[in-house]
Amino acid sequence: MNLILHITQRNQWENAQQSQIYCGDTLESEGFIHCSTPQQVVEVANSLFKHQQGLVLLCIDSDKVSAEIRYEGSQEDKLFPHIYGTLNLNAVIQVLNFQPKEDGTFAFPQEIVSLMS
């Protein structure tokens, strides 16, 4: 299993559970961006979500994703997984509260470490 991690607003996730459809923000690309390493999660959270409350971190089993996944580079030549299409909810194996520290920055949740090994 390759774990894909995705940061989203709790209300967007709750809406997805009710409608059974989740398609993340495009972030100016055709597919929506996810992370595959702890470093990517922290970098994305601190650059795009600093000080934001009400976030969750979706832990996604890439083997269960029915849409196309492409690993594409960013400006720094780091590969990020992009899911092209809607995310089937049964691919989400865990949902964690993802809240900033007092200074507004994020740290990687230690609960995920066991899933990554």
Automatic annotation (TrEMBL):
Gene3D superfamilies the record matches: Protein of unknown function DUF952
Domain of life (superkingdom): Bacteria
One Pfam family here: DUF952
PANTHER family: BLR1139 PROTEIN, DUF952 DOMAIN-CONTAINING PROTEIN
Name the record gives this protein: DUF952 domain-containing protein
Organism: Gloeocapsopsis crepidinum LEGE 06123
